[in-house]
């Protein structure tokens, strides 16, 4: 029985969908594991018809616009910590600023709190984390400076393996908190216990094709997504928001290789 999986490979700044690889079923007719191997590595040629010109989403696309008000959490993400019993919840509050008269936000002005539990009706546990901001400052005439929203990180500990947890994050004292979201913890790691489906993806960009890539990925129900890098390509932009497929070709005269940091914020939305 063959199992189809989608392989995604990025080449330079263009995301390329390489094709469908048929993986032969293992001895039990299911998905082969490393325990069934070792297998001969299979290389699949790049299908050139997938080498397109990926166009960046513009600032006006609804997918990259800020939908929250005030200090409501946005750009919420869950990342794996060192073991199954711990994950990081991260989010942003407040608006970035870019321009001449930027005033950094005070990260202490908004708390970093996650309420969580095994039932969405009983978020009985609480974890508190920390927050920070960062600035991108250019000492050159004509370049704009950037200061980020407040970035929050909270580590949840003592979680059970292979278990759904529900959570909401924010600062309940303001009060500004997120909707309730959920995640599933990893299994206890051993030679016969590991996440069954791991998606590996990179060079995602923030293009009209990124959404379809993520949809493909999600329709394969991965237990874990490994994002190997290259996300927004903010470095293909000037600080005034003008972008190009090839920075050095288009902007040979800039005093420094600048970036347009708001594209980082867009990516998290
Ligand atoms: C950006 O920050 C740098 C370093 O503080 C400063 O020299 C520069 O004048 C600032 N630029 C603007 C446009 O405010
Ligand atoms: C990327 O998106 C564009 C615009 O939506 C579309 O025309 C093109 O077929 C997509 N490319 C791939 C490889 O899916
Ligand atoms: C940004 O700067 C570049 C280079 O100076 C210029 O060609 C472009 O018109 C500017 N774009 C905007 C929106 O100001
Ligand atoms: Fe890349």
Automatic annotation (TrEMBL):
Gene3D superfamilies: 3.60.21.10, Purple acid phosphatase-like, N-terminal (2.60.40.380). Pfam families: Pur_ac_phosph_N. Keywords: Signal. Residues 73-185 form the Purple acid phosphatase N-terminal domain. GO terms for molecular function: acid phosphatase activity; metal ion binding. Residues 1-29 form the signal peptide. PANTHER family: ACID PHOSPHATASE RELATED, PURPLE ACID PHOSPHATASE 13. This is Purple acid phosphatase N-terminal domain-containing protein.
């Amino acid at each position: 029985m063959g199992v189809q999986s989608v392989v995604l490979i990025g080449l330079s700044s263009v995301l390329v969908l390489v094709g469908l690889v048929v993986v032969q079923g293992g001895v039990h007719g299911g998905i082969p594991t490393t325990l069934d191997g070792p297998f001969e590595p299979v290389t699949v040629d790049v299908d050139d018809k997938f080498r397109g010109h990926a166009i960046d989403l513009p600032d006006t696309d609804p997918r990259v616009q800020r939908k929250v008000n005030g200090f409501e959490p946005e750009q919420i993400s869950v990342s794996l910590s060192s073991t199954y019993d711990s994950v990081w919840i991260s989010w942003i509050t407040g608006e970035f600023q870019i321009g001449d008269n930027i005033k950094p936000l005070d990260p202490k002005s908004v708390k970093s709190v996650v309420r969580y539990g095994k039932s969405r009706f009983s978020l009985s546990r609480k974890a508190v984390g920390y927050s920070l901001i960062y600035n991108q400052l250019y000492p050159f005439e004509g370049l704009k400076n950037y200061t980020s929203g407040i970035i929050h990180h909270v580590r949840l500990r003592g979680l059970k393996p292979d278990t759904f947890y529900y959570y909401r994050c924010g600062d309940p004292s303001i009060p500004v908190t997120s909707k309730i979201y959920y995640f599933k913890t990893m299994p206890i790691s051993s030679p016969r216990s590991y996440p069954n489906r791991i998606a590996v993806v990179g060079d995602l960009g923030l293009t009209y094709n990124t959404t379809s890539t993520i949809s493909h990925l999600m329709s394969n129900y991965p237990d874990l997504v490994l994002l190997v890098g290259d996300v927004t390509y903010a470095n293909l932009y000037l600080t005034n928001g003008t972008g190009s497929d090839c920075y050095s070709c288009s902007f040979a005269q800039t005093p420094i290789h600048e970036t347009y940091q708001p594209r980082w914020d867009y990516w998290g939305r």
